[in-house]
Amino acid sequence: MGVHFISVLGTSLYEPVVYHFPEEDRRGEEQEFVQIAMLEELRDQIAGEGKISIFLTDGARKRNWEDRIYSDKDVQFSERWTSGKKQAVCEGQNKPGMMSVLKKDYPELWERTEEIRISNASTEEEIWSVFEAIYNAIEEDDEIVFDITHSFRSIPMLAITIINYAKVLKNCTLKGIYYGAYEAAETAGGVKYAPIVDLTVYNEILEWTNAAEAFMQYGFASKMKAVYDKKMSTIPNEEKKEWGPIKGKITAMQNLSSAIFTCRGTDASKLESKKKSALAQKSVKNAYESLVAKSTEASKAKAREMKPLYPLIDKIEERYQEYFSGETNFEIGCGVVRWSIQNSMVQQGYTALEETMITYLCARYQLDDRTERTREDIVGKAVTGIAKYIEQKQSAQYFEEHREEAAETICRAIMQMKGKPSEADGKIREIVLTIPLPLVQLCKKIKDRRNDINHFGFRDNPVSADLLNAELKELYNDFMKLTNAADWCIEDECRQ
Question: How far apart are CA 299 and CA 400, in angstroms?
């Protein structure tokens, strides 16, 4: 679909003035209807596949859409005009309506015009009826230009909300919101020149607001990047280089957000030698370090030029620091779990919690927490072996009272699976003999919940979504208490 021009016609007797866009020379003819001046600019874009929607109250239809007869009050009102066209305002004479102007002078635009009746929007019910009328007039993929010059009461605010609603559901875009500023007109040579003001920035502010909400409530940085990219598309190419510091920071935020969502919990810089940009996409820790490195004075100064951007970036960096400024994989893992709980990321939370428990056990038993061999072949097998042993004996107490026997049984079973003993068997035996039983029980429950999610609920007794959500915080707090890190426990009320 092409350009869709939307306007609400009012009821006043409008003085003919020369409406012009500020960046253009003052030219054109005096126009009573600002809509005609705007349509002159959009003529070629609308005449093909475009559309014009004029919304009319009953009063606007009678006063300005249809032809009518000038009254004595009209004559008195027009005496205040500067325009020489006031001489044509005579009682009993015909006043051409906007419909007649379109039909006569712009037949190709008239063919694309639809008039739509609306109420005065005086009550909540009427406001919803106006909302529905405007929304229904918008079609898929429309490029909307909204004139709010003569809109009444709440229409300008309503228009912005409708457009943003339609952007989501109908994939439309906003080309501009304009206002014919009659009250700012300047007189020269007996003619009034009124600027057509671009108010699209108000919609931009709303988009930044949505981006801020997406981050603060759900941890999404992608919305902010999308709004930023859209803003950059309006900046001349020769100026884009100046925005390099901001681009780097936005990219770093997006990398960190993606690393969190995909559970990149390890410090990748210790595993492989790659460019920092590549590491930032493989590790929460490395992504956070990249963001800190991008937080230069130059980037901050440039962010201040994009008014809604600076406080948003400032808040994002403040929150990220709270969770991801730790040095160890254990600290980062706990940060990801807390972040997941605060932002309703249940699956990521369970994944991070189980792996962070393994990280903790690696540290407890002086094992390298970065390799699959130590995490899976030693810690994983030891904890799983204990859980199976308890299940077979149907008694945790029996395990506590017979750890030597349990260690022998578990190590023998692992050796049979491998076919030969290894140096890891001694460490597995040490874990079985000394690990606190509550840690094992907690590991088992977390693993069970994680498997429930990762198997898509295809289990004999799948857990409800509400229970998975509620238990994540409880299990995390239990883990913090068992590791003597209770200061990181999450209070009952999460930040909203």
Answer: 58
Mean pLDDT in residue range 127-135 = 92
pLDDT band at 21 (very low <50, low <70, confident <90, very high): confident
Each residue of 263-293: pLDDT tens digit?
Answer: 998 888 776 655 666 777 889 999 999 989 9
Mean of all residue pLDDT scores within the chain:
89
Q: Which residues pair with 52 in a beta bridge?
A: 5, 113
* Residue 74 neighbours by CB distance under 10 Å: 18
Give me the helix-helix angle, 244-261 and 222-232, nearest 10°.
150
pLDDT band at 321 (very low <50, low <70, confident <90, very high): very high
DSSP 8-state code for residue 17: B
Task: Work out the widest C-alpha separation in the chain, in whole angstroms.
Answer: 111
Q: Domain segments of the chain: what residues?
A: 3-198, 208-323, 346-488
Q: Give the count of beta carbons closer than 10 Å to the beta carbon of residue 485.
A: 14
* Main-chain phi, psi angles of 114, to 5 degrees: -125, 130
Q: In the CATH hierarchy, which fold is given to the domain comprising 3-198?
A: Rossmann fold (3.40.50)
Distance (Å, whole) CA 282 – CA 256: 9
| Amino acid letter for position 204 | E
| Cα 475 off chain centre by | 30
